[in-house]
Specification:
By secondary structure, the chain is an alpha/beta fold. It has 12 helices and 9 strands. The structure holds adenosine-5-diphosphoribose and zinc ion.
Length: about 270
């Protein structure tokens, strides 16, 4: 693994537009379960996954009931308010700060990249700390809407300050379209990058899993370097979409890569 860490550091230092794609695997060391790993939420409770596929239809049929359920029940991922970034998140934020990483495209809704200091984050599956208007995609801080009072006065769902459309959690449910702004920007990043670092995702959920394939087909002559960091091989590994897999924990591997990058930058 050490030689692959050296190789990744070398390639990151030489890259012109490196980005990273992340999944639930980067947050497991913050105590947030992933979905399909050995202790994953779906692995342990397939019924919960089946129900999750119905959430968006429920919202569309009856936004008021969707909101009542949401306010009554805890999030599948547990209480995320006190979740803290781990060394993997901090290493990615530092790689952005020293000008190596240009963007994080994450499937995670936990806001941990932002808490770790990453500035350029695309929340591909939304962000649990925001509400989003289903008509105009405007996003708001939930604190602006006094949701408990709306519930008590039977005035749910909250409505958009801009267009009066219905608001829902920014979290993207199965069968729900990825918000246009994030989808567009993520695709552009995948087309533009000359290095893609894919951390802690099983890469089985689309359209996110198209992004590495878009990078693989980048037409501008130069081959994009695609590196995976994951506890296990994924379809990207098996199909040769990634150039190589550094197998292990993101919380261990990413700080080592950062250290090697810094040594090279300081000419050591
Ligand atoms: N370090 C590296 N890899 C890890 C770690 C870790 N500490 N912990 C788990 N992993 C790996 C797992 O082995 C697995 O391959 O991370 C991957 C996590 O995959 P999933 O649980 O499928 O999570 P993700 O790919 O983000 O799921 C995508 O599915 O249910 C939807 O919307 C949900 O955004 C989620 C999407
Ligand atoms: Zn709106």
């Amino acid at each position: 693994m050490e030689d692959l860490i050296q190789k990744a550091a070398e390639q990151l230092v030489k890259s012109k537009h490196a980005i990273t794609l992340t999944g639930a695997g980067i947050s497991t060391e913050s105590g947030i379960p992933d979905f399909r790993g050995p202790n994953g939420i779906w692995t342990k409770n397939p019924e919960a996954e089946r129900k999750a596929y119905q959430s968006y239809a429920k919202f569309q049929q009856n936004p008021k009931e969707y909101w009542k359920d949401r306010m009554a029940g805890a999030s599948l991922l547990g209480d995320l308010t006190n979740a803290a970034p781990n060394p993997g998140h901090y290493a990615l934020a530092e790689l952005e700060k020293i000008g190596i990483l240009k963007c994080v495209v994450t499937q995670n809704i936990d806001n941990l990249h932002q808490k770790a200091g990453s500035q350029r984050v695309l929340d591909y599956h939304g962000n649990i700390s925001l509400l989003r208007c289903v008509s105009c995609d405007a996003r708001f801080d939930p604190g602006e809407f006094h949701l408990d009072r709306l519930l008590a006065e039977d005035r749910l769902p909250p409505l958009c300050r801009k267009c009066n459309g219905v608001l829902k959690s920014d979290v993207v449910h199965f069968h729900e379209a990825i918000p246009m702004d994030v989808a567009q920007e993520s695709q552009e990043q995948a087309e533009k990058c000359d290095l893609m670092l894919i951390c802690g995702t099983s890469a089985v959920i689309y359209p996110f899993a198209y992004l590495p394939r878009i990078a693989r087909q980048r037409g501008t002559g130069k081959k994009t370097i695609i590196i995976e960091i994951n506890a296990d091989p994924t379809p990207l590994t098996e199909e040769g979409i990634s150039d190589y897999l550094i197998q292990g924990k993101t919380g261990t591997i990413l700080p080592k890569i950062l250290e090697e990058v810094k040594k090279r930058r300081e000419g050591k």
